[in-house]
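lol forgot to send this yesterday, sorry. struct tokens for the thing we talked abt
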């Protein structure tokens, strides 16, 4: 279904980037500029959303994205414009969390920041930067993880790209018991226990990382590398065809 606010623009063929929002019951190949070798599959109950700078698959049960895909292009870099958290306008209110649901998260036992899946810093120079602060792109990440190895990996990806030498990323959530909850959320949800990030180039050379909420602030992101096959077995959806690459790991500062 094409959202009403874009229908007229499409009719006039002026729009350059289309936002599509739909649920699918079939598993067809999903192609997008955000995942040029094919996007991950979309679980049947999920909502698939294509924004200007990323694509994501929102899980209505956990209330968080199972995966988010995006390109890291140096042309989108810039000075951080700030944070203004917004409920995702393309999702029904019962399929995502709201700003108030995060109240007290940082001071609770979760010690959780609002963690971007597609990082704001990678799109601060884009006129669409505000989409990065939609809560569909946010999850509760322990502050030591969010400000430690997760941030270090995002920085490493940005340092590894150059003009016309983009890298692509698929990132997402993993869940294991115990099922943690935000202290003031009024909707059923499940806080992720871990996160993954797969960084790859147009040849399919990739490096996968898995980081638990319990990761230490001073942990090295390079110590979180895992085989893609191992990660794939932990997911409820399929990744595109990618192969483990030492060269990609070296680009990310991992020797």
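and heres what i got for the seq, position by position
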């Amino acid at each position: 279904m094409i959202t009403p606010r874009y229908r007229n623009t499409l009719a006039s063929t002026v729009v350059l980037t289309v936002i599509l929002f739909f649920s699918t019951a079939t598993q067809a190949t999903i192609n997008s500029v955000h995942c040029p070798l094919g996007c991950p599959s979309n679980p049947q109950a999920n909502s698939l959303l294509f924004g200007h700078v990323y694509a994501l698959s929102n899980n209505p049960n956990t209330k968080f994205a199972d995966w988010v895909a995006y390109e890291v292009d140096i042309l989108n870099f810039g000075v951080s414009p700030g944070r203004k958290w917004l409920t995702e306008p393309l999702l029904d209110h019962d399929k995502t969390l709201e700003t108030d649901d995060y109240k007290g998260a940082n001071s609770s036992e979760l010690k959780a920041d609002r963690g971007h899946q597609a990082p704001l810093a990678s799109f601060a120079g884009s006129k669409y930067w505000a989409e990065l602060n939609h809560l569909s792109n946010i999850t509760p990440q322990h502050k030591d993880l969010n400000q430690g190895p997760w941030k270090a990996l995002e920085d490493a990806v940005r340092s590894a790209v150059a003009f016309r030498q983009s890298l692509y990323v698929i990132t997402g959530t993993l869940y294991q018991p115990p099922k943690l909850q935000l202290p003031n959320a009024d909707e059923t949800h499940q806080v992720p226990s871990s996160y993954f990030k797969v960084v790859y180039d147009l040849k399919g050379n990739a490096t996968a990382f898995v980081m638990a909420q319990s990761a230490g602030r001073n942990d090295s992101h390079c110590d979180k590398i895992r085989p893609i096959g191992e990660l794939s077995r932990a997911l409820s959806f399929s990744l595109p065809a990618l192969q483990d690459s030492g060269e990609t790991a070296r680009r990310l500062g991992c020797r």
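The chain has a mean pLDDT of 89. anyway ping me if u want another try
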